[in-house]
Amino acid sequence: MSTAEPGRGASAHFEESWAGLLREGLGLTVHPAARQRLTARTAELLRRSWQDDPACTAAAEEAGTLLVDAHYTDPSVLARAVELLHAHPVPKGRGPVVAGAFAAGWAAALRERTLRDQEEIRAAADTARQTAERSQRATEARFRALFENAPIGIGIGDLHGNILEVNRALLDIFGGRVEELRGRRITDLVHPEDEPGTWQAYDELIRGERERFECTKPYFRKDGEVVWTHLTCSLIRDEERVPRYQVALLEDITDRYRLEERLRHQATHDTLTGLPNRAAFIDRLERLFRAPLADARFGICYLDLDGFKFVNDSLGHAAGDELLVAVARRLETAMAPLGHLVARLGGDEFVMLLERSRGQQDAVTVAKAALAALSNPVPVADRRLSVRASVGVLERSVATTTPEAAVRAADLTLYRAKEAGRGRWTLFDPGHHAREVTRYAMSVRMPAALERGEFFVDYQPLCTLSDGSLAAVEALVRWRHPDFGVLSPDDFIATAEQTGMIMRLGRWVLEEACGQAAEWVRRFGPAAPQVNVNVSVHQARDARLAADIGRVLRSSGLDPRLLQLEITESAVMRTDDDSMPTLRSLADTGITLAVDDFGTGWSPLGYLGELPVSGLKIAGSFLADTHRPEAAARQSWRVIEGLVSLARALGVKVTAEGVETAADAERLRAMGCDWGQGWHFGRPARPGEITRRIAQELRRAAAHNDARHYSE
Ligand code: C2E
Ligand code: CA
């Protein structure tokens, strides 16, 4: 039965299963009509194979080919098909033969098809590669053209630091031929003036830690000249982002750099001496404070020539300039081995900066070296000038100060060196400095304080010794300071003189005192006291003083004869003739002058004949000394007596200051002294109190007159 012709039922069953297999298709979507045609055609071919003679397996092979052509290429389709063909009961054992032929057809078709597909892929890849190469070649050509003709130098290097390629512009920058540059090491191009950090940035770049850096960089040309460039260095990575090359773009900026350098030099150097100027010094100083080590110390030596003004005035400015240049050279030479910056701050002031100091001794050494450098006479204008200088030395740890505070402190220390006597160095003294700073802070506040009405004037009586009556009052200024309370003039007048504030303050005191005196005149007529106003050295020297006084007298309406100016003996002596005309023109207006602190100056008395002085005030220190032990007291009285008789000989009114007791007042009266001033006669007081006192004296005088009237 098994070898017999398959029955109708078996044949129908095969066809059903075959159609089912192709319908499932394993993921294939074939149009139903096409699938039915394929099913019918392949079933027909298989049937023919079963029936035909053994040689005719071609039909089964064709069925396999057709399936592959219709995209039934999944191996599991073949497996299922072979299973079906085996299971089909066919005669003469032809089942396996047909199945084998079918499978062979299927496989051959599939191989054929795969080869075709592979060829297509290869061809496509080929075309793609060709296109890519073409465009790459175009890019490369474009790149070449750019590279070669770029107006800016381009160099390409590998990551080991070898120069691989350079363009023409780069050769122009460096001079020389391609071969001389190619293969050289990039690290050979170091220049001593390379910006700090340049080579660190370079190392980071070739390690792939940064993509780019830019800087201004000098190079040595082949001929030894220096060329300045703007350098941009970039890292080139491949498609996998692996660093491959470095590219440097160099723009020759030598001309621009030199111009900038010249401008920079001009901005940071003094034209006369060629030394760094104040700006350069401040810049260097500030740099020390930017990122200091914890224990970093520095020093500043401020140097100022003594008597430079004299050279300028007597020998002329050209000689003065010559001297400054010579001093600059000497200081420079002296500091060169120590490596310290020497700068000219302006005028005859120089500074030396110790950027690294180990302690005060280092700074003192510098100050001594500077003074020693100036110890030999300097040839100037066919003469040999002896130069002397004062040095203020400041040595501090960077952590404890600021550049501004250090400069101010050094300046004040120099000022102290000058005060202490010239030709020496003085070390910064923190305690003294604190006081100076307070004074400085005070001087800064003064203008605003004047505006806000923080100043006021007290008046102290000057009394006739013969009868104790009020003859004059001295105006004494005070400052009601918001932080320090009421300050005495000793606390702020010196500062006001230093800052020039004394002119404004002095003018204000004059206005105040003259206004007050004029009011007393309005109220008490001839019984109103004269008013004495203190005038400082600076005021006396200032030509504006006469104009100021004229204006104040006019606006107050005060009779000039009721105004007396008190000028210290030392002020009169120190005026170098400057103030003589001013003081003389003042006297022409009718006001009078008194010499204050008389006897303390030990000065020749010639000026007394030249100046319209009408009063002398014997310094309170002499009376104070009369209260010391016997011998000193006797001595003081003798001096006072001498001063009194001197004044009388000159025909001027003499006042004794600091009269604290009735006994002193009596003794002075007996010796012929005219007036007395001091606590015995009254402390400095508010104007209202003086007003009451004048009124009281008037009443007493009236009573006295009445009494005399009745007694007659
Ligand atoms: P001075 O001209 O010698 O003024 C007298 C000073 O001696 C005043 O000090 C006064 O208070 C003080 N005095 C008065 N009687 C006695 C006394 O019996 N015993 C003692 N121990 N001292 C007495 P004050 O007010 O502190 O003034 C100090 C100095 O300030 C003045 O010295 C004067 O030179 C200056 N001064 C005051 N007001 C002005 C001003 O408006 N302009 C200028 N330029 N200087 C002024
Ligand atoms: Ca006085």
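^ calcium ion complex. The radius of gyration is 56 Å. Residues 94-149 form the longest helix (56 residues).
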